[in-house]
Amino acid sequence: MIDKIYLDKLDSAYMTILDMTKIDIKEKRREKARMDILKIFCHYARNLIKNIHGDRIFTLDFIGKYLNRDHATVLWSIKKHEEFVLVNSDYRLLSEGIIARIKTIEKEKVVRINKRKLAFLNERGTEDLRGEWIDLILEHESHRKNIHLIRKLLETANE
User: Fold this and answer.
1) CA angle 55, 57, 62 (to 5 degrees)
2) Measured between alpha carbons, how far is 157 from 66 in angstroms, rounded to an integer?
3) What residues contact residue 64 under an 8 Å CB cut-off, 6+ apart?
4) What is the pTM of this model?
5) Cα distance between residue 113 and residue 115, in whole Å
């Protein structure tokens, strides 16, 4: 069973493409623009949506069913995407633009979710518990290089 978070990413990518291009890639028509965008979507769905271990989430068959097509169409689309990115600069720019927009929207969603989660914890935590959380953040290895920035942010919050 595929986790809802990954299905939401797939839906978000589909809706972003639809919003950007006004082209519904689920429609079975063979216009060049639609086929180019289909290639980009298939590449994104198969190769860029991964779990925390870096494994692919969606099979060719699943992507095909999502798009009302078969797995062979998805495989062909991905192969053609890889070829076109190397030889066609217009296609490469289109692909980079669409994928960048999808990733930007995904990041915005994650930031909003994290802000809500932090606000929720902040409202319900005691002052002592919030202090422990701050200490944990400051002690975490990933923040060592940015410790001066974090301390400065905390100082301005105290003013």
Assistant:
1) 145
2) 47
3) 70, 71, 72, 73, 74
4) 0.69
5) 5
3-class secondary-structure state, position 107: helix
Domains of the chain, CATH where assigned? 4-111 (1.10.1750.10), 126-158 (no CATH)
CB neighbours of residue 64 within 10 Å = 19
> What's at 150, amino acid-wise?
I
Structure tokens at 45: 């769905």
CA atoms of 21 and 50, how far apart (whole Å): 25
* Distance in angstroms (rounded) separating the CA atoms of residues 149 and 134: 14
Cα–Cα distance for residue pair 10/44, rounded to 1 Å: 9
* pLDDT 10s digits, 26-76: 999 989 999 999 999 999 999 988 887 788 999 999 999 999 999 999 999
